[in-house]
Known about the structure:
Elements lengths: L3 H23 L6 H12 L4 E4 L6 H10 L1 E2 L2 E5 L6 H5 E6 L4 E6 L6 E5 L6 H4 L3 H6 L1 E4 L2 E4 L5 E6 L12 H5 L3 E3 L6 H11 L12 E2 H12 L5 H16 L3 E3 L3 H17 L7 H12 L4 E2 L1 H5 L4 H10 L10
Parallel strand pairs: 1-9, 1-10, 2-11, 3-6, 6-9
Antiparallel strand pairs: 4-5, 7-8, 12-13
Helix pairs in contact: 1-2, 2-11, 9-11, 10-11, 10-12, 11-12, 12-14
Amino acid sequence: xxxxxxxxxxxxxxxxxxxxxxxxxxxxxxxxxxxxxxxxxxxxxxxxxxxxxxxxxxxxxxxxxxxxxxxxxxxxxxxxxxxxxxxxxxxxxxxxxxxxxxxxxxxxxxxxxxxxxxxxxxxxxxxxxxxxxxxxxxxxxxxxxxxxxxxxxxxxxxxxxxxxxxxxxxxxxxxxxxxxxxxxxxxxxxxxxxxxxxxxxxxxxxxxxxxxxxxxxxxxxxxxxxxxxxxxxxxxxxxxxxxxxxxxxxxxxxxxxxxxxxxxxxxxxxxxxxxxxxxxxxxxxxxxxxxxxxxxxxxxxxxxxxxxxxxxxxxxxxxxxxxxx
Length: 325
């Protein structure tokens, strides 16, 4: 575990910044503290976030509120059926004056990329995000361009049952650290939303409360959070359980293991701890793992959802004693 003096001071700094960002987002997103917390976990863990829900519940509002709370470069890409891969990554254009090709960056060249309705673009265009999301770089015409850190893709999508949507490829889903659903607001939150959203757009008054440099420092603090051998084995046991069951045709990947542990480290830091508890891993199992799994034909025909299957698998894995980790 980290040193109590420096580690404690770092965690206090992290808590202050996270609280500022959280309060900023909650000025726009009413009554969804769990969703906001999950978004901040992914940000601090250096991952990418997928927000899936029906139209009109605030998916894009949440992603924009997160982006505007940080003083950094932000680009928004509206995914449509006619969007081209070059619109996402960039393209080389011949300059008649210099008689040379010039690279014009695409929408991914920003610290935070808001991909709106990502599953309305073709699979070919969706795949343009694969390299940048995993390797933090873009290769165009044999030239590789490194993306500035922090780099986070916040994508929204409608359920696959909605008209005009394409299923995200498995490789694409696996690159998102977590998937969250906003859900419908409770009545009190919806009443408050009427009061604040009908007169003006609350996003217009949102000011940054931190910057890219500070986020990089906080990610470094998260990286120092201790993960004991017992907690590591518990995370691997959860992942392994998804690969052994007949209810799933596709279990979680090794990348999922890394994402689960990184997210747990960020979650622990947000709780003021410099070490991860098994409960941190348990809390994040659903948002980090569920979107990566594919149910078997038999499970789908019998009405067993991926979420229900994962719940059963998680319940069957013994949880280490927190006092011994």
